[in-house]
Amino acid sequence: MSEPNETNDPALSSWVASANDQGSDFPIQNLPFGVFRRRAQSDAFRVGVAIGDQILDVGLAQNVGAFSGPAARAAAACMAPTLNAFMAMGPVAWSALRAGLSQILRDGSALAERLQGCLVPQSHVEHTVPAHIGDYSDFYASIHHATAVGKLMRPDNPLLPNYKWVPIGYHGRASSIRVSGLDFHRPIGQVLAPGATAPILAPSKRIDYELEMGLFIGTGNELGKRIAIADAESHVFGLCLLNDWSARDIQAWEYQPLGPFLAKSFATTISPWIVTLDALAPYRAGWHRPEGDPQPLSYLDSPLLRDAGAIDIELEVSIETARMREAGQSPQRLSRSNFRHAYWSVAQIVAHHTVNGCNLEAGDLLGSGTQSGPAPEEAGSLLELTAGGKKPLVLESGEKRAFLEDGDAVIMRGWCERPGFARVGFGELIGRVIPALDA
Questions:
Q1: What's the pLDDT tens digit per position in 407-423?
Q2: What is the pLDDT of residues 209-230, one digit of tens each?
Q3: Which CATH number is 211's domain given?
Q4: Is the dihedral of CA 271, 313, 365, 162 positive or negative?
Q5: Which of 127, 151, 166 is the last residue of a domain?
Q6: How far, in Å, CA of 58 to CA of 94, rounded?
Q7: I need a surface site. Which of 43, 251, 362, 401 has the fewest CB within 10 A?
Q8: Can you tell me the distance from the alpha carbon of 38 to that of 68, in angstroms, rounded to the nearest whole number?
């Protein structure tokens, strides 16, 4: 488990002036990884690191001799259009390159002038999914979300008895994962209208978002060999924001007996930047079970988990309707939550995923599931905020929303703040619903 080190020192500042702005998501204490290219160009995508409002092209920095030793070997693995090779090198290499980046981007760096040509403004680039995602699994790690949704479907028995014992998850669709900025068509599927006895094929009328964290696997495990919980986080390269878009009416008809399928596979979006666990080290919190709940089985428990297994990440979701956009109105915040409320931790998710011998590989993505907090206004989906659509939200624009309409954009943000440390952010995750294609 990562512990704070000199790269987290709040006194550090950068020669990239915008990185020192109060409230920046990307100070020198963050240094998240992503993949980019200049907008409207056909160049290959490149590995970069966010610093202020700029991106440091890691490959160009390597070419000008910015790194040495283990950092140089790690940077060489970044001379590719995805992060997979670098991810597979493991935590020693990740930390070495992060330390090297911190050194060359600090105020007083002798390389500052030479590295000016390795910077690209974030406003001038487009991003792609930062790794080749071979597999995607989505979990259900928020007990508050699970309970709220359960009350809508099973008022007398909202939380099924296995929830407090096992991290629930399902295998998702990796091919439909896209990076922030996606416009996706309203999906078409089978829906059963209230009172009907037979389904019809129609565009979904109940499009929803899900506010989640994504966990990118770095080093994997061999088939048949499980990852112990004490080692689990050494296999996690970093975290991103994730929106697992959902068609609730399609989901209601199809989910029994095997769970989500077409209601989830049409689109999943992630933020462009992966924030490493080293950058998140100062924002650890103790993990515990509420009094009266069963304690986890031994393979899901450890002293490290109890001491610092939770991560204090503020999460926020906003909406921008087509009318708001046309009127020049700012997006409206719908809810705010925190990843520390998760019932199942990062380490537990990884340990459970592999306990049966399932092999994970570099670039695999694990979703946390919708991250709702204990208060109603901390809900991470419209399904919860509107009581299943029965209590539509009245927006500041005068519009009402039970579920998303065509033209609606959903914006998600995440950040960490703690006295005595620099603010570390995840950037912005945005996606927009556009009309369905012909049925």
A1: 999 999 999 999 999 99
A2: 999 999 999 999 999 999 999 9
A3: 3.90.850.10
A4: negative
A5: 127
A6: 13
A7: 43
A8: 27
Identify whether residues 66 and 209 lie together within a single domain: no
CB 393 within 8 A of CB 401: yes
The mean pLDDT value for 81-90 works out to 98
Q: Which of 65, 92, 127 is the last residue of a domain?
A: 127
Query: 195 and 307 in one domain?
Result: yes
Distance (Å, whole) CA 276 – CA 261: 31
Q: What does the block give as tokens for 370?
A: 């919708």
**Which residues are catalytically annotated?**
145
Instruction: Give residue-wise pLDDT tens across range 1-21.
Output: 778 899 999 999 999 999 999
